[in-house]
Amino acid sequence: MEERGVPAMGRTLFLPLLWIAMLTSAARVVQCLPYDYSSSSECLPEPLEPQYGGGILRNANFSAGLQGWSAFGYGAVEEGLSATGNGYGVARNRTRPYQSVSQKVYLQNDTHYTLSAWLQVSNGSADVRAVVKTDGEFIHAGAVEARSGCWSILKGGLTAPASGAAELYFESNATVDIWVDSVSLQPFSREEWAAHHHAAIKSARKKTVRLRARDSAGKPVPGAQVRVEHVRSGFPLGSAMSAEILQSPAYQRWFTSRFTVTTFENEMKWYSTERVQGREDYSVPDAMLRFAKSHGIAVRGHNVFWDQPSQQPAWVRSLSQRQLQQATARRIRSVMSRYAGQVIAWDVVNENLHFQFFEDKFGWDASAEFYRRAHQMDGQALMSMNEYNTLEWPGDTLAGPSKYLGKLFQIKKFPGNANDARMAIGLEGHFSVPSIPYIRAALDTMSKANAPIWLTEIDVAPGPNQAHYLEQILREVYAHPAVHGIILWTARHPQGCYVMCLTDDNFRNLPTGDVVDKLIAEWKTHSLAGVADADGYYEAELFHGDYKVTVSHPVANSTVVQSLSIDRETDTDSEYTIHV
Ligand SMILES: *[C@@H]1O[C@H](CO)[C@@H](O)[C@H](O)[C@H]1NC(C)=O
Ligand SMILES: *[C@@H]1O[C@H](CO)[C@@H](O)[C@H](O)[C@H]1NC(C)=O
Ligand SMILES: *[C@@H]1O[C@H](CO)[C@@H](O)[C@H](O)[C@H]1NC(C)=O
Ligand SMILES: *[C@@H]1O[C@H](CO)[C@@H](O)[C@H](O)[C@H]1NC(C)=O
Ligand SMILES: *[C@@H]1O[C@H](CO)[C@@H](O)[C@H](O)[C@H]1NC(C)=O
Ligand SMILES: *[C@@H]1O[C@H](CO)[C@@H](O)[C@H](O)[C@H]1NC(C)=O
C-alpha cells in the first residue's frame, strides 16, 4: 500500500499514525491512518472537536468564522457564538429543506469518506440529513434527529462515485435554523479500509493464547509437541431456515455443516402459530427447534409481535381494543412460556420504528410494555428490537441510528424495565447497493447504547454485483467490534428464497454461497502444529472458538488431549497449562 496523499494542512493533525503490517505483504510495512470509532448517543452542551481535524474540510470547527463555508440553495448563513465562546455556523430564515451551511470539496473516485458533524436546531427537534451533491448525484450520507439546546452527532459516510468537485450540505423539512459545527470528511483508500478490518478482527475476534506444557511434577516441558485443531467457531454466523429443512436431508447437511445459529423464517410468527383465533399449532416450530437443538444450533425467537398492520393474523385486525388486549396477553404468554430458556433472543416487537400497529391501539409506550412483559417471561434471553434501513439506507430518517437509540432508551427507561431488561439491537440488513462507510459509521453510533448488536436478516437484492456486495457487507459487519452475531436471510424453499439464495435447488453453491463459504474458512484458525520453547511455552493467535489441543511429551511416551474454548469474554492474555 502506498502512503496516502494527505493534504499538507491536515497531516500534522493526524498524529499518532499507526504502523500496520498488512498480512498480504508481510515484508512491507505500510502507513495507515487508523479509523476513529468514536461517536455519541447523547446530546451534548458543546460539540466535541472534529474527528481527524476535519479531514479534507477547511475551518472544520468554525474557529475562523464562516471562512470556507457558504450558504447552500440561496439560503442565509451567519456565525453563531456560544456563551463559552465557541463559534459555529447557522443557517437562518430557511424556507426550503436544502437551505443550509455548506462547503465545497474535491472527491477522489472510488474512495471511502467518513463523515461526522455536530448539529443543533433552533426549536424543538428535527430530522437533519447530510447530503453530498456531486456532478449529477445527491448522495445521502447520514441523518440525525437534532435537538435545540444541545448538540447531536451525525455520523455517516459515502463512497465517491467519481473524481470531481462536490458540495457537502445539510437538509431538513422543518423550517428551523440549523446550527453546524465540528464537521469532518475523511478519505480512506481501499487498502486503509482493509487494514482497519485486519486490526479490528485481531482485537475483537481473536486472542493470543499461551499454552504451557508441564510434567506431572509441575516442571515446564521444553520441546513438547503441540497441535491445535479448530472444532467450532466462536462467532455466531447463521442463516434463517424454513420448515422444508425437516423433510430434506440435503438441506440439513448443507445447513449443519456451516451454521451455528438460526432464525425460523416465518414459522414462529403469530400468523403461523395461530392462523385461526384460539387454535394454536406449534408443531412446526417445535420440530424445527428440536432439529436445531440436536445439532447445537442456537435459535433467535422471531417474533412475538410485528408492528406492521399487514403482518397481523387476519383475525387480529378486526378485534376491538379490549379483545386485542386479551389476544396480545395470550400470545406473549403462549409463545414465550413455550420457548423460554430455549432461544437466545426474542424479537419482541418487530419493526416498531417503521410501523406502529400496537402504538396506534394502545398508546405510545405499547412496545415498552411488551418488552417489560417479555422480560418477565424469559429472564435469560436477550430482548431485541429488529429493524430495517438503519444500515441499509442513510436517507431513511425513520430508522437512522438516533431514532433507533431513542426508541431503545424509551423502552429501557419504562417503569418496570428499570434498565435491567437485557436489551439487544437487531439490524436486519436487507441491502440493495450498500454504502460501506455509512454502515461502519452507523454501527459506531449504535454501539454507544452498550447493547449487543446482531445483524439479523442479511440479504442483497439480485443484480450483477450481488455476491460482491454481500462480501463487502459481511466483511464490514464482521470486523465491527460492536457486532455479536450475523444471520443471513437465506431460508430455502422449493420455489426459491425471500430475496437471496446461497444455493440452487440441489444445495450447490451460487456465487453468494461461495462468498459465505470463503469467509467461514477465512474466519477460523486452521490446524496448527509446533514445538514448545525452552520454557515449555507455545503461543498462537486463535479466532474465538472451541479447539482440541494435543500435547505430546518429547521423551516420555505420553500424549494429552484437552479441549479449549476461546471467547471474547475471557481475559485477553490467556495462559493455559497442560499437564503432559
Ligand atoms: C479548531 O481548529 C483549529 C485549526 O484546526 C485549532 O487550532 C483549534 O485548536 C481548534 N479548536 C478550537 C476550540 O478552536
Ligand atoms: C433573517 O431574517 C430576519 C428578518 O427578516 C433578518 O433581520 C435577518 O437579517 C435574516 N438573517 C439572515 C442571516 O439573512
Ligand atoms: C417552536 O415549535 C413549536 C412547536 O413545535 C411552536 O409552537 C413554536 O411556535 C415554535 N417556536 C418558534 C420560535 O418557532
Ligand atoms: C471509479 O473507479 C471505479 C473503480 O476503480 C471504476 O470502475 C470507475 O470506472 C471509476 N469511475 C470514474 C468515473 O472514473
Ligand atoms: C422531507 O419530506 C419528504 C416528503 O415527505 C421526505 O421524502 C424526505 O425524506 C424528508 N426529508 C427529511 C430530511 O426528513
Ligand atoms: C507408546 O505407548 C503406546 C500405548 O500407550 C504404544 O502403543 C506405543 O508403542 C508406545 N511407543 C513407544 C515408542 O514406546
UniProtKB/TrEMBL annotation:
Record-stated family: Belongs to the glycosyl hydrolase 10 (cellulase F) family.
Residue limits of the GH10 domain? 225-519
- Is the ATP-binding keyword given for this protein? no
Q: Which InterPro entries match?
A: CenC_carb-bd (IPR003305), Galactose-bd-like_sf (IPR008979), GH (IPR017853), GH10 (IPR044846), GH10_dom (IPR001000)
Name its species: Zea mays (Maize)
Q: Could you name the domain of life of the organism this protein comes from? A: Eukaryota
Kindly give the PANTHER family that the UniProt entry links to this protein: GLYCOSYL HYDROLASE, GLYCOSYL HYDROLASE FAMILY 10 PROTEIN
Q: Does the keyword NADP apply?
A: no
Quote any Pfam family the record assigns: CBM_4_9
The record's annotation in PROSITE patterns points to:
GH10_2
Q: What is the lineage of its organism?
A: Eukaryota, Viridiplantae, Streptophyta, Embryophyta, Tracheophyta
**GO BP, one example?**
xylan catabolic process
Signal peptide residues are 1-32
Name listed for the protein in its UniProt record: Glycosyl hydrolase family 10 protein
List the keywords (alphabetical).
Carbohydrate metabolism, Hydrolase, Polysaccharide degradation, Repeat, Signal
Extract the GO molecular function terms from the UniProt entry.
endo-1,4-beta-xylanase activity
For this protein, the record's SMART domains field holds: Glyco_10
